[in-house]
């Protein structure tokens, strides 16, 4: 593991957002959802895809708050453009558990 400076950490823009739409992503190579998140007035709505189908249904995700890295450049993933990175933790089997705030926060709140 390499050490980073506080300045480098501050360059990562992690924000709270609320999932407003979850769609199947049949074109994905591995099972995934297309996810739309409201990051508040400053950032607006952003989309991404996420391989989180093992532990979450579309219905469970809708309305849930998540943490997302919002200052990556857009990345084309099949037919959609990923506009942020949904954060999560990998289990030994490779499945993902979401990293989420444990209390309700305003959309757009910044991790710091």
Output the keywords.
tRNA-binding, tRNA-bd_dom, two-stranded antiparallel sheet, tRNA binding, globular, 112 residues, CsaA protein, OB fold (Dihydrolipoamide Acetyltransferase, E2P), mainly beta
Shape: globular
Structural domain count = 1
Strand content: 35-45%
Mean pLDDT reading: 96
How would you describe this structure to a colleague?
The protein is mainly beta and 112 residues long. It has one domain (10-98): Beta Barrel (OB fold (Dihydrolipoamide Acetyltransferase, E2P)). Helices cover 12% and strands 38% of the residues. The chain is built from three helices and nine strands; from the N terminus they run H-E-E-H-E-H-E-E-E-E-E-E. The longest helix is centred in the first third of the chain and has 5 residues, at 6-10. The two termini are 21 Å apart. InterPro entries: CsaA, NA-bd_OB-fold, tRNA-bd_dom, Tyrosine-tRNA_ligase_regulator. Keywords: RNA-binding, tRNA-binding.
